[in-house]
Design brief:
- There is one protein chain.
- This protein has helices spanning 3-11, 27-35, 41-49, 73-101, 109-120, 168-176, 180-184; strands spanning 14-17, 53-55, 59-61, 122-127, 132-142, 147-154, 162-165, 199-202.
- The longest helix has 29 residues, at 73-101.
- By secondary structure, it is an alpha+beta fold.
- The radius of gyration is 17 Å and the shape is globular.
- Helix 1 crosses helix 3 (41-49) and helix 4 (73-101) packs antiparallel against helix 5 (109-120).
- The protein is built from 7 helices and 8 strands.
Length: 208
């Protein structure tokens, strides 16, 4: 994907908020080096054009590409991954495995096996007001498309874990801003009509 398709997409939206959360060309390259893995190419392009923000009043996508005197980028990344998101998911997975051991499962074994694999190499890049996390399975990264599988994983109901796509541009255009979410998600997960629309609210650095 080229940045011009992202420029075309953002040109179709009503954009409000800050201009301070977009990434420079080398910001995420440097962060990749420090973290030891590659971000999907489409995500890097998104962060250069859109920056961190909220799509259609519902899905929040974060761009870990800035530094400040108060908080380094790696500390911010650790905060989101360990303290806010990934730690909670792993804790819930542990609790569910205990329920299985005691004979009171809520999640099928096949789904638990998937979650053990995905969460062992997961990176959370977004969330929404319903405590649903959007993450990559970094183990699925492929150089041929420079993408990762994208999962929706609710913090409080692992059984609802859903593979929602792979290509990041299609995820933003068709899932976050389009109708794909209503087609592939169960009814209880689908966005309210009021949350679908051509709007992007760009976060300031203080919001990220």
């Amino acid at each position: 994907m080229k940045k011009d398709i992202w420029q075309s997409l953002i040109g179709e939206l009503t954009v409000t908020g800050s201009h301070a959360s977009t990434c420079g060309g080398g910001d995420l390259d440097a962060l990749e080096h420090e973290l030891g893995f590659k971000f999907p190419r489409g995500y890097k392009e998104f962060c250069e054009v859109f920056g961190a923000g909220e799509l259609a009043g519902f899905i929040r996508i974060y761009c870990f590409c800035f530094r400040s005197e108060q908080e380094g980028v790696l500390d911010l990344t650790k905060l989101v991954q360990d303290e806010l998101g990934l730690m909670a998911l792993k804790s819930e997975l542990h609790s569910e495995m205990e329920r299985h051991r005691k004979g009171h499962p809520r999640t099928p074994p096949i789904k638990l096996t998937l979650l053990q694999k995905v969460l062992s190499e997961a990176f959370i890049f977004g969330d929404d007001p319903n405590a649903q996390n959007y993450l990559w399975d970094l183990g699925s990264f492929d150089e041929s498309d420079q993408s990762c599988d994208i999962y929706l994983v609710p913090t409080d109901d692992l059984n609802r874990t859903t593979l929602v796509g792979r290509d990041f541009f299609e995820f933003v255009k068709d899932f976050c801003l389009g109708s794909r979410a209503r087609k592939i998600l169960p009814p209880s997960f689908r966005f309210y009509e009021e949350f679908t629309g051509k709007h992007f609210f760009r976060f300031s650095r203080e919001n990220v």
